[in-house]
Amino acid sequence: MISGMLYNCLQKELETTRMSCRDYMLDYGSFRTRDYKTTQEFLDAKYKHLESFIGHVGKNAFMEYPIYFDYGFNTYLGDNFYSNYNLTILDVSIVRIGNNVKCGPNVSILTPTHPVDPTLRYDQLENALPVTVGNGVWLCGSCTILGGVTVGDGSIVAAGAVVNKDVPPNTVVAGVPARVVKQLEPRDPNFDTMAVLKQYGMGYID
């Protein structure tokens, strides 16, 4: 799968692996704060559970439930990762996410794709391309990152954007397909994220 070559997505072994991942995802939603003496114990338990099925989980990573993965073990999360509700990562290929990355609700990272030739699709063939999200990136609500894309360090993907090509570092991209609408100066204290995104009709960004 991770080679980018065509493969049959309905192979028995792959189906079984995906089913197992679904069990882990459902179990993640079963944790209850009332079952723990402290909030920290609750967070530690959820973190440990993520480590049990995700390829790598950095320090202080947290995901709001529900979460959706194809396999889990092809995803690598950096330190201080946070995702709001309904994060979807179809990690047929490798997904690498850097440190200090934030995701709004309903963010989708989709590595798989399907042949243009319908006869190949009839045979359940697909392939996948990796995704890399750099350090300090903000993926705003309901944006979509497609396979083969690298999002550069410090960039912002506006709400609802569909990213089908690489995003340069320290830029804001918006729209369908996404395009650069702003070049950022790292650590610019005067940069108004909301103002820029509203200018391009992307006012909801959490």
Q: What is the count of β-strands?
A: 20
CATH superfamily: Hexapeptide repeat proteins
Q: What is the spatial order of strands in the main beta sheet?
A: 3-6-9-14-17-19-20
CATH architecture: 3 Solenoid
Helix proportion: 10-25%
Low-confidence stretches: none
Assembly annotation: single chain
Largest sheet properties:
7 strands, mixed
Please give the CATH class.
Answer: Mainly Beta
> Shape from CA axes?
flat
Structural class by secondary-structure content: alpha/beta
Q: Would you give the CATH topology?
A: UDP N-Acetylglucosamine Acyltransferase, domain 1
Order of helices and strands: EHHEEEEEEEEEEHEEEEEEEEEH
Radius of gyration: 18 Å
Query: Could you report the average pLDDT, rounded to the nearest whole number?
Result: 91
What number of domains?
1
Number of helices: 4
Written overview of the protein:
There is one protein chain. The protein is an alpha/beta fold. It has a single domain (7-199), classed as Hexapeptide repeat proteins (UDP N-Acetylglucosamine Acyltransferase, domain 1, 3 Solenoid), CATH 2.160.10. The chain contains 4 helices and 20 strands. The chain has helices at 12-28, 39-51, 118-122, 193-199, and strands at residues 7-8, 56-57, 62-63, 67-69, 75-77, 82-83, 87-90, 95-97, 102-103, 108-110, 112-113, 125-128, 131-133, 138-139, 144-146, 150-151, 156-157, 162-163, 171-174, 179-183. The strands form 4 sheets. A 7-stranded mixed β-sheet has the order 3-6-9-14-17-19-20. A 5-stranded parallel β-sheet has the order 2-5-8-13-16, covered by helices on one side. Strands 4-7-10-15-18 form a 5-stranded parallel β-sheet. Strand 19 (171-174) and strand 20 form a beta hairpin. The longest helix is centred in the first third of the chain and has 17 residues, at 12-28. This is Maltose acetyltransferase. It comes from Candida albicans. InterPro entries: Hexapep (IPR001451), Hexapeptide_acetyltransf (IPR051159), Mac_dom (IPR024688), Trimer_LpxA-like_sf (IPR011004). Keywords: Transferase. Belongs to the transferase hexapeptide repeat family.
